[in-house]
């Protein structure tokens, strides 16, 4: 069975459906069991975060995918919310790691979500061997990955460092598209910052690929092999939608309006998925324009 913690979220539901479509058994870990049953009715098993319930479902799980974590974009980053961002990631990861170490029949593979933001703001080409940055998101990802470590060499462990996910209805893409729909297309920040994107279909298939390829472990960048700058990203949307870019929103203004949260769009990583590429993973969407056209 493949069990997903945070399985009622955007990515969790996409993964669960893709696994079910392949005839695999699915487990869901959620704080809200009613919501879980409603959102993922085709799952085979459900568990809460109660210790006994976690032990039960994890003992019958071959692959665990932990996607738990509060949204980065929903609220302003007050000191209180920054604490929630950190603890909503590290606490579940730590609980899972501690419980798995007590099990007689632990999962063979544990994939814990992480973020491409772990590298900070990079201009030079960045892969899994690159060092972490020093900003807030970098530190969150470092602590997140540290909390997920399981002291068992027989368990394959992966930290899935995800980039900006392009999906028609959810995630960042609809928000980035909105100004163009109203003929107010804009380049955010300097435009020179890198945007490590990935199409939702490639993201889902990369999880399948990791599960199937036992040699893959440790940090893995889940991003396209063709990163672009924010300026290039806006120009592609403009070309595809035939809507103009009318303005550039300066970084200082974004910082004023959004506070520290602005770094989500004003900073970026020139990151490539070195491990996926070296292992032979074939991206369905190698070019940004093709990816965007598929979503419009």
CATH architecture grouping of the domain at 2-164 and 198-224: 3-Layer(aba) Sandwich
Tell me the strand percentage band: 15-25%
CATH class of the domain at 2-164 and 198-224: Alpha Beta
Q: Tell me the number of helical segments per DSSP (H or I, 4 or more residues long).
A: 12
Descriptive overview:
The chain has 296 residues and is α/β, with parallel strands linked by helices. It has a domain at 2-164 and 198-224: NAD(P)-binding Rossmann-like Domain (Rossmann fold, 3-Layer(aba) Sandwich), CATH 3.40.50.720. The protein has twelve helices and 13 strands. The strands form four sheets. The protein has a seven-stranded parallel β-sheet with strand order 3-2-1-4-5-6-11, sandwiched between helices. Strands 7-10 form a two-stranded parallel ribbon. Helix 2 (33-39) links the parallel strand 2 and strand 3 (45-47). Helix 1 (10-21) packs across helix 7 (200-212), helix 4 runs parallel beside helix 5 (136-148) and helix 8 packs across helix 12. The radius of gyration is 19 Å and the shape is globular. The chain starts with a strand and ends with a helix. The model has no long low-confidence stretch (mean pLDDT 90).
């Amino acid at each position: 069975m493949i069990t997903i913690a945070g399985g009622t979220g955007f990515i969790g539901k996409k993964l669960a459906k893709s696994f079910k479509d392949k005839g695999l058994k699915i487990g869901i870990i959620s704080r809200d069991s009613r919501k879980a049953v409603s959102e993922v009715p085709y799952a085979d098993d459900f568990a809460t975060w109660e210790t006994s319930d976690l032990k039960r479902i994890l003992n019958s799980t071959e692959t665990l995918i932990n996607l738990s974590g509060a949204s980065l974009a929903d609220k302003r980053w007050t000191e209180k919310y920054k604490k929630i961002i950190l603890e909503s990631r590290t606490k579940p990861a730590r609980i899972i790691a501690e419980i798995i170490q007590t099990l007689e029949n632990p999962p063979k593979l544990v994939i814990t979500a992480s973020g491409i933001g772990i590298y900070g703001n990079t201009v030079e080409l960045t892969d899994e061997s690159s060092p972490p940055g020093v900003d807030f998101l970098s530190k969150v990802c470092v602590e997140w990955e540290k909390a997920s470590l399981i002291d068992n060499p027989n368990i394959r462990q992966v930290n899935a460092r995800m980039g900006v996910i392009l999906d028609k209805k959810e995630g960042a893409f609809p928000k980035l598209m909105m100004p163009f729909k109203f003929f107010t297309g804009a380049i955010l920040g300097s435009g020179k910052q890198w945007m490590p994107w990935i199409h939702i279909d490639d993201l889902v298939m990369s999880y399948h690929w990791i599960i199937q390829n036992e040699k893959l472990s440790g940090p893995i960048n889940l991003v396209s092999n063709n990163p672009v700058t924010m300026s290039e990203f806006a120009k592609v949307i403009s070309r595809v939608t035939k809507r103009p870019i009318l303005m550039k929103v300066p970084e200082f203004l974004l910082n004023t309006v959004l506070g520290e949260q602005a770094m989500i769009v004003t900073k970026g990583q020139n990151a490539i998925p070195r491990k996926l590429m070296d292992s032979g993973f074939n991206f369905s969407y190698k070019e940004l324009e093709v990816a965007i056209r598929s979503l419009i």
